Each structure stands twice: as C-alpha cells, then as structure tokens.
Automatic annotation (TrEMBL):
<feature type="region of interest" description="Domain I, interacts with DnaA modulators">
    <location>
        <begin position="1"/>
        <end position="83"/>
    </location>
</feature>
<dbReference type="InterPro" id="IPR010921">
    <property type="entry name" value="Trp_repressor/repl_initiator"/>
</dbReference>
<keyword id="KW-0446">Lipid-binding</keyword>
<keyword id="KW-0547">Nucleotide-binding</keyword>
<comment type="function">
    <text>Plays an essential role in the initiation and regulation of chromosomal replication. ATP-DnaA binds to the origin of replication (oriC) to initiate formation of the DNA replication initiation complex once per cell cycle. Binds the DnaA box (a 9 base pair repeat at the origin) and separates the double-stranded (ds)DNA. Forms a right-handed helical filament on oriC DNA; dsDNA binds to the exterior of the filament while single-stranded (ss)DNA is stabiized in the filament's interior.</text>
</comment>
<keyword id="KW-0238">DNA-binding</keyword>
<dbReference type="Pfam" id="PF11638">
    <property type="entry name" value="DnaA_N"/>
</dbReference>
<dbReference type="InterPro" id="IPR038454">
    <property type="entry name" value="DnaA_N_sf"/>
</dbReference>
<dbReference type="InterPro" id="IPR013159">
    <property type="entry name" value="DnaA_C"/>
</dbReference>
<dbReference type="InterPro" id="IPR003593">
    <property type="entry name" value="AAA+_ATPase"/>
</dbReference>
<feature type="region of interest" description="Disordered">
    <location>
        <begin position="78"/>
        <end position="99"/>
    </location>
</feature>
<dbReference type="GO" id="GO:0006275">
    <property type="term" value="P:regulation of DNA replication"/>
</dbReference>
<dbReference type="GO" id="GO:0005524">
    <property type="term" value="F:ATP binding"/>
</dbReference>
<dbReference type="GO" id="GO:0003688">
    <property type="term" value="F:DNA replication origin binding"/>
</dbReference>
<feature type="domain" description="AAA+ ATPase">
    <location>
        <begin position="144"/>
        <end position="277"/>
    </location>
</feature>
<feature type="binding site">
    <location>
        <position position="159"/>
    </location>
    <ligand>
        <name>ATP</name>
    </ligand>
</feature>
<dbReference type="GO" id="GO:0006270">
    <property type="term" value="P:DNA replication initiation"/>
</dbReference>
Length: 450
C-alpha cells in the first residue's frame, strides 16, 4: 500500500518536488485507523505535514478505507542507512516541469522557516544589505555581487538575510536548472572539515562543497585562528568563484577589520559586494515589533511598541525575545498587553538596559534641562535653583542606574551617601506633592531612557 501511495505522490507532485520533500518520508506502521509516517528532522516533519499532509492522507484513504488520519513523527527508520550529510544534488526536472530549486535537504533543515524576505523588515540601517541579498537571490553570481559579504553586530539580521536568500532560491528558481545551495555556519564548516580529515574523506568533502551553486558561510569570524580550516575554506572559495558560483559570507566585522584572517583570504572576501548591517534605529525597531506582533496575531498598543522600541536598543534578537515573552504572557493569562505588563514581564531585560545609562549622562541632561553649568553638579553651592536640579540628578541616578548611594555621591563632588539618600527622598516627596515637578522629572527620565 505504501509503495502505491508513494508512487501516486510522486506522480502528483512531480519528480523534483518529490525528491526534495517526500522521498524521505518513511512508513512506520498502521495502527487502527492511523497511519504513522516518519521524517528525519522536525523541520521536514512540519513542512511535509503542512504542505502535503492532506494529499498523503487522501491517497492513503483511497488505498485503505480504514485509514482516518496520518500521523507525522520524527525519526529515521532503522532499516535504512542514515542519510548522507549532504544529499546528492537533485537532478534537473524533466522538460515542461516548473524548475524547482533543490537545496540540499540537510541545509534546508538548518534553515529557519521564519527567516524569509517577506518577514524581513527593511529600514535605513539594513536597506543596502537587503537590496544586495535580494539581488543575489534573483541572480546568483552576478558580477560585482560575488562574493556577497554581509557584516554587522549580533542580532542585526545577517542570518535572517542568508536564510532568506536560500529560501528564495528554493522557491523562485527561474530558468531550467535547479540551483543547489549549501548553507552552514563557519563552525559547522570546521566541524565537517575536521570529521572529513579524521575519516580520510576530505576529497569527498571538497567535491561536495565544490559541486554547489551557492555556498553560504555564516559567522566567518569563527575561523579566526583556525588555520587549517581557513586554508581549506580559501581553496573552496577560490574553486567556487572561479567556476562562477555564488558565495555569501557573513561576519561580525568587515573584511578589513577581521584581523586574524589570512591576508589573501581577506582580500578576496572584500572583492565583491560588502554590505553593512548598521545598528538599528528607533523607527526600524518599531516597525519590526509592529510586524512581529501582527504576525503573532496579538494586539499590542502602539504605546507599548514605542516603549519597547525605545527601551530595547541592543539588537533585534533581544527585541523579538521581549515581544515574544510579552505575547506569551498575554496569551497565558488572557490579559491585554499594556505598559504595566511590559514592565512586569520584562523586568530583567529592562533593568539590564537601564544599567547602560551613566551618571554623567544624567547630569548632562539635567543641567541642560535646568540650564545650569555641569560643574554645579559637583559644586558646594546650595542655592535652590542649583541644589534642586542636583537632587533630581541624584534621584535619577538612583532610579536609572544600578550604582550604590556612595557611588552616586562620589559623582556629585564626593558627597556623602546620606546626602544622596536625602535627595532621593526629597525628590520622591516633591513628586507626590507637585504635579508640574513630577512631570518634569518624568520627562527627564524618558529622555534619558531613550
Ligand atoms: P545575526 O545573524 O545578525 O546575529 P539574526 O539574523 O539571527 O541576527 O537576527 C536575530 C533575530 O532578529 C532573528 O529572529 C531575526 O528574524 C530578527 N531580525 C533581525 N533583523 C530583522 C529585520 N530587519 N526584520 C525582521 N526581523 C529581524
Ligand atoms: Mg547569525
């Protein structure tokens, strides 16, 4: 029965699609009205279930009327040898069939389904990198774009863009020939290289890598100090570029700043297109949050989005993590997302960010606001128009930094910690009594937090 179901699937979806997605489905058994099938990875399981689940179930039902449902599980069938690390390249589709790119399955499984061009939010800091990635996905190995070198700090979207290129190539191939894509982290590259050395299969490893159309290596900085692996990568790189294949690299720094890489490699890395992912701006963070909240189907008031976008400035990963926690919390307790819940749920994250505000910054802002000289923060003058702002600055230092009272005192002309304590309680009192003053302090606080 399974053989017949398979044959029908193959006929239905076409050879290439079948090989790409369905070949690895194995039949595990029939229990009551349920057929159990296995896939080697979770990603494949979910993907096949989503895309082909209904088709598979209906073919089964036509074979065997008892079957009501198909259960998808992960695991490899014991009887079959383990899948090779890199599946053999998929053959060209027969004429007339749509050209499906067939990235290698191992690599597809390593790709995050959420990292597509559609989910990538474009803004000033990343528009150039995005445009380059698009270009490479549309026309791999175009002169001037090879290699494509993407660099930027942690969590700014390098991996996302690389996966997006791979997905795009896998779904939107033009022309007749399928494109094979190999994506791996530099770490994985090294791991595989070392394994190949150990098992004396370096030649196979080399051939495998050199047979792809697009090679993507993520986080190249990992190869610094790994001389043998670097050497191997250099040769692979040259072989591929010489053969007109596309290379996409990401790293945390630009080629010229990647000290520790061999010069000749560094030079070649910089020969194509080098695109920088800049630190995010408030606008980009806001749009990312907006897009993700919408995708999650949760209503997050603009005020909360703004709050998060202002507070969590480090990188998009942290931003996303914060939003996810907020959304999970809202779902779990069936509560609306508000600034208060944000404070509550994200207490630790927000605190970590607050710590970055320095006392100097606070003093500067406060002085600007009250129009006094910065030296007055440390002076001994006790005139109210000076002393009050000084107290406000101390209060804000206590609120916005993790500095101790004595520490704070030292920044204010070596004042005693009791003076700081007094300032904090005085300002707290005034906030309670005087709405205008409270507003002033709140405004300062906001300005500093941004
Ligand atoms: P990097 O590889 O540069 O460290 P990632 O690509 O892993 O960063 O991005 C970290 C997280 O932030 C991912 O979940 C990614 O989807 C998200 N992200 C980064 N940039 C964007 C963007 N411009 N739009 C949407 N999501 C983004
Ligand atoms: Mg990354």
């Amino acid at each position: 029965q399974w053989a017949r179901v398979r044959a029908r699937l193959q006929a239905e979806v076409g050879e290439v699609e079948y090989r790409t997605w369905l070949k690895q489905v194995s039949f595990a058994g029939l229990a009551g009205d349920e057929v159990v099938v296995m896939l080697p990875t979770r990603f494949l399981r979910d993907w096949v279930n989503k895309e082909y689940g209904e088709l598979i179930a209906s073919f089964w039902q036509q074979e065997n009327q008892l079957v009501k449902r198909v259960e998808f599980r992960t695991g490899a069938p014991a009887s079959r040898p383990a899948a090779p690390d890199l599946a053999e390249p998929v053959q060209a589709p027969s004429a007339g069939q749509p050209a499906m790119v067939a990235p290698r399955q191992e690599n597809m499984a390593a790709l995050d389904q959420r990292f597509t061009f559609e989910t990538f939010v474009v803004g000033k800091p990343n528009e150039f990198a995005y445009a380059c990635a698009r270009r490479v996905a549309e026309a791999p190995a175009t002169a001037g774009f090879n290699p494509l070198f993407l660099y930027g700090g942690v969590g700014l979207g390098k991996t996302h863009l690389m996966h997006a290129i791979a997905w795009e190539l896998s779904t939107n191939a033009r022309g007749g020939r399928p494109v094979s894509v190999a994506y791996m982290s530099a770490e994985k590259f090294m791991y595989r290289f070392i394994n190949a050395l150990r098992s004396q299969s370096t030649l196979e490893f080399k051939n495998e890598l050199r047979s792809v159309d697009v090679l993507m290596i993520d986080d190249l900085q990992f190869l610094i100090g790994k001389d043998n692996t670097q050497e191997e990568f250099f040769h692979t790189f040259n072989a591929l570029v010489d053969a007109g294949k596309q290379i996409v690299i990401s790293a945390d720094k630009s080629p010229s700043d990647l000290s520790g890489l061999e010069d000749r490699l560094r030079t070649r890395l910089g020969c194509g297109m080098v695109a920088d992912l800049h630190a995010t701006t408030f606008e980009l963070r806001y749009s990312i949050l907006e897009a993700k909240a919408q995708r999650a189907g949760v209503e997050v008031p603009p005020k909360v989005l703004e709050f998060l976008a202002r507070k969590i400035t480090s990188n998009n990963r942290e931003l996303e993590g914060a939003l996810n926690r907020l959304v999970a919390h809202a779902n779990l307790f069936n509560r609306q997302v508000t600034i208060d819940t944000a404070h509550e749920v994200l207490h630790d994250v927000l605190k970590a960010h607050d710590r970055k505000i320095s006392i100097q910054e606070i003093q500067k802002r406060v002085c600007e606001h009250y129009n006094i000289r910065i030296a007055e923060m440390s002076s001994a003058r006790r005139a109210r128009n000076i002393a009050r702002p000084r107290q406000v600055a101390m209060y804000l230092a206590k609120q916005l930094t993790s500095k101790s009272l004595p520490d704070i005192g030292r920044h204010f002309g070596n004042r005693d910690h009791t003076t700081v304590m007094h300032a904090v309680s005085r300002v707290t009192e005034l906030i309670a009594q005087d709405a205008a003053f409270a507003e002033d302090v709140e405004l300062l606080k906001r300005l500093l937090e941004n």
